Amino acid sequence: MPGRYGRGVSDGLFDAPGTEDVADEFVPSIAPMGAGFAPLAVRMRPRNLDEVVGQQHLLGPGSPLRRLIEGSGAASVLLYGPPGTGKTTLASLISQSTGRRFEALSALSAGVKEVRGVIELARRRLTAGEQTVLFIDEVHRFSKTQQDALLAAVENRIVLLVAATTENPSFSVVSPLLSRSLVLQLTSLSEADIRLVLTRAIEDPRGLAGEYTVTDEALDHIVRIAGGDARRSLTALEASAESSLDGTVGVELVEASVDKAAVRYDRAGDQHYDVISAFIKSLRGSDVDAALHYLARMISAGEDPRFIARRLMIQASEEVGMADPMALQTAVAAAQVVQLVGMPEAQLALTQATIHIATAPKSGSVVKGIGAAMADVRAGKAGAVPPHLRDGHYAGAAGLGNAQGYKYPHDHPDGVLAQQYPPDELVGTDYYRPTDHGYEREVGPRVTKLRRIVRAR
């Protein structure tokens, strides 16, 4: 029935399927609820290796991760990768192997006391022949002291540590803990992987149990907005199903269920917002006299000059942009005068910035450029950074293939050379489109020439 998949009081972050009873006094247990109450992403968490989607580069025969999951490995691991790629799932599978006990801590809420409490509990279990898997989510948020508290327990294998992080552990995890663990890098799921996750959830009795019809267009849209994040895709699917009145999920329903509501700026005719709106539109329309009128009204009404200065800085980029790059510098200087000198003298600097922006040539290329780029990112076009552009200034970077083959532009006589910079799926995409207004008349031909060289065409 539509709407039966309501949300429970917990997101089930640390629920390992089939292991609801492993928590103890140091990690509050999550009371088992009906399957329909847990979030879809929790209900569909893989129960065994056969159900894991993606990460096959880490799960090959004889790999350290597969040995851990099968119960024959004993090395602690740091799972490093984007959200929704299976870090928590893999931790739960490791915990189920050979009867290991599972404890979970979140770096957002646990302190040194909680860490030591779990270690002491694990020490007692070990004397009885039971090994404890300690899963720490968001380990990069642990302080150095908290991470140091784990060292002896990890080195002596009192606990088998499985830590998850979305940040590069080379920067966020202390070196002694890093050297005692295997670092395994997970990657975003492919579109085919996400589609498989969704189709399983639609039909599986743990999921929507075949009670909803999801159109191909809706499925395609969820795959696009997921950005390789399985949890995000399942959350979008669940939200859309909950909103369906007839058991059908179409693309319009997905868009309505997933998109965030716009934040309103205007407040029902409040004079404050009417005047600032007119000020902005006058600047955009190059009516310097109207802009000065509304500036005077705001100053006379006692408007916070910092607010006016902020609007001017925004307008300098939004309305003028690269047609006159000096407009932004004038607006920033006006904001500094407001801060350092104050009113009433600062009104002259605000006036100067207003005149500069109102009379400057206009270009919306800055807004359009970032808007197009953000739209692609929201649509899931955020592929992997090319290996030769990745950071190579840490131990182990070369082994991952990072920063290999990078060509240094300053070594070329012209200071620019052919080299791929964007992700594969965005090669050849133009975001910045200069106008022929003001300074952009000079920038436009230069951009065209640079693109021809960099893209080798």
Question: What this model shows, in words?
Answer:
With 457 residues, the protein is α/β, with parallel strands linked by helices. Helix content is 44%, strand content 7%. The protein contains 19 helices and seven strands. The protein has helices at 40-43, 64-70, 87-96, 112-127, 144-148, 151-155, 169-172, 175-179, 191-203, 216-226, 230-243, 251-258, 271-284, 288-300, 305-320, 326-340, 346-359, 365-378, 440-454; strands spanning 76-80, 101-106, 132-137, 159-165, 181-185, 213-214, 248-249. A five-stranded parallel sheet has the order 2-3-4-1-5. It has a two-stranded parallel sheet with strand order 6-7. Helix 4 links the parallel strand 2 (101-106) and strand 3 (132-137). Mean pLDDT is 81; it is low at 1-36 and 260-270.
Number of helical elements: 19
In whole angstroms, how far apart are the ends?
57 Å
The stretches of 5 or more residues where confidence is low (pLDDT under 50) are 1-36, 260-270
Round the mean pLDDT to the nearest integer and report it: 81
Number of beta strands = 7
How are the strands of the biggest sheet laid out side by side? 2-3-4-1-5
User: Helical content, roughly?
Assistant: 40-55%
Secondary-structure element pattern, one letter each: HHEHEHEHHEHHEHEHHEHHHHHHHH
Alpha-beta content class = alpha/beta
Largest sheet: 5 strands, parallel
Instruction: Give the C-alpha Rg.
Output: 28 Å
Strand content: 5-15%
> How does the overall form come out from the CA principal axes?
elongated
